[in-house]
Design a protein that fits this description.
Helices cover 47% and strands 13% of the residues. The protein has 15 helices and 10 strands. The chain has an 8-stranded parallel barrel, surrounded by 7 helices. A two-stranded parallel ribbon has the order 1-10. Helix 9 links the parallel strand 8 and strand 9. The longest helix has 20 residues. It starts with a strand and ends with a helix. The structure holds 3-methyl-2-oxobutanoic acid (KIV) and zinc ion. 3-methyl-2-oxobutanoic acid (KIV) binds next to strand 6 and strand 7.
């Protein structure tokens, strides 16, 4: 039996762009969409057209130019939203409407002020309405993880009966734990009337730092679409990071026997482009795409890496399209790494020279965070000219 395909639904341009400080202009969204196409995502959620004319325009432009992936747009369960989304995705080769309504009692009562019955009616009516524009309709039950499961399953049954082919169960507020979301997906899939007619999707937020773990557990429990963003950007603490999900699946095939259509060598370029366009960098220690993700400063690690990369690396930088320049020199570095960096810079050190250069560099490292190549060249030159002066005197 071959491994099962997981659809990657990228929402960088919608949920990601909704985050404070991450807004993008229309041409920037198009540039990112082109790169997402190269990354190989299956679905691009290009925006929320009712939110603004610029959002609608960006979705329509992307739908016109990007032909391979499904292009989707978000719409509340409201006719006006759905009509606007339908207009925006109309030029797409593979158009999808993504409509949603909250299903938790808290959201129904406090936010929407409607009853469970009204929620059910709205689901049927609006999914059916969306189907007039495209055969591909995704339905999301907002705040699904805090919803009553019996009621949620009635809503899902209604959405499937009305023609939805993807059912997304978001952990809207990032509240779930991996164990809980695994049980939840299994329970829902076991309970709804026609689970084989649809694809179940996970959409996890990162408020407790569990978005990727929750997403992967949902996959193990039957989700076959995952909603995620480059660099994990998104509302509040963000969404599940696309690059982390994809590389976890690729690296741990023994535990996660699934496949995606992603060209992993495009992950680093995608992260870099997003950082450049938004002006918001990721933290240095961010998995997969952080500056330190493939760097080693400690002497023991550097020594191991120089002998066999697999000692301290479970993935190769090249596989995610990142430059591999792993030896960062700092106060924890060892002599082997210093000697190797000098050799890379064309400075071959012999005998006592190694000891002296190493000592000088470590005293620089005591005051600074890292040692730059320029420091190394300066130290070696200064030691050599001192030695030359001694000989001449
Ligand atoms: O987090 C969420 O619930 C959402 C839905 C609109 C899909 O982003
Ligand atoms: Zn979301």
């Amino acid at each position: 039996m071959g491994s099962q395909r997981i659809r990657i639904f990228d929402t960088t341009l919608r949920d990601g762009e909704q985050a404070p400080g991450f807004s993008l202009k229309v041409d920037e969204k198009l540039e990112l969409a082109r790169l997402l196409d190269r990354v190989g995502v299956d679905i691009i959620e290009a925006g929320f057209p009712i939110a603004s004319p610029a959002d609608a325009e960006a979705v329509r432009l992307i739908a016109t130019e990007i032909r391979r992936p499904i292009i989707t747009a978000l719409a509340r369960c409201r006719k006006g939203d759905i009509e606007r989304a339908a207009w925006a995705i109309e030029p797409a080769a593979n158009p999808r409407i993504h409509t949603f309504i909250a299903t938790s009692d808290l959201h129904l009562r406090a936010k929407l002020g409607i009853s469970r019955e009204a929620c059910l009616e709205s689901t049927t009516e609006n999914v059916r309405f969306a189907r007039q524009f495209t055969d591909d309709v995704e339905f999301s039950a907002e705040d699904a993880l805090r919803s009553d499961v019996d009621f949620l399953c009635r809503v899902i049954d209604a959405a499937i009966a009305a023609g939805a082919s993807t059912i997304n169960l978001p952990d809207t507020v990032g509240y779930s734990t991996p164990d809980e979301i695994g049980h939840f997906f299994r329970a829902v899939i076991a309970k709804v009337s026609a689970p084989d007619h649809v694809i179940f999707s996970a959409h996890c937020h990162d408020d407790l730092g569990l978005a990727v773990a929750n997403t992967l557990t949902a996959v193990e429990a039957g989700a076959r679409q995952v909603e995620c963003t480059i660099n994990g950007i998104g509302e509040r603490a963000g969404n599940a990071a696309l690059e982390e999900i994809v590389m976890a699946i690729r690296t741990r095939q023994d535990r996660l026997p699934f496949e995606t259509g992603v060209d992993t060598r495009q992950l680093w370029p995608a992260s870099q482009l997003l950082t450049h366009l938004t002006g918001q960098s990721v933290q240095a220690n961010k998995a997969i795409v952080g500056r330190n993700a493939f760097a080693h400063e400690a002497g023991i690690h550097q020594d191991g890496i120089l002998k066999d990369r697999r000692t301290y690396e479970i993935m190769r930088a090249e596989d995610v399209g990142a430059p591999w320049d792993p030896l960062v020199l700092g106060k924890h570095s060892g002599r082997h790494a210093v000697q190797k960096r000098c050799a890379d810079l064309g400075l071959s050190l012999e005998g006592d020279e190694i000891v002296e250069v190493y000592r000088s560099l470590m005293s620089i490292a005591d005051d600074r965070k890292t040692i730059a190549d320029a420091d190394i060249v300066a130290v070696v030159q200064s030691l050599r000219s001192d030695a030359g002066a001694g000989i001449g005197a």
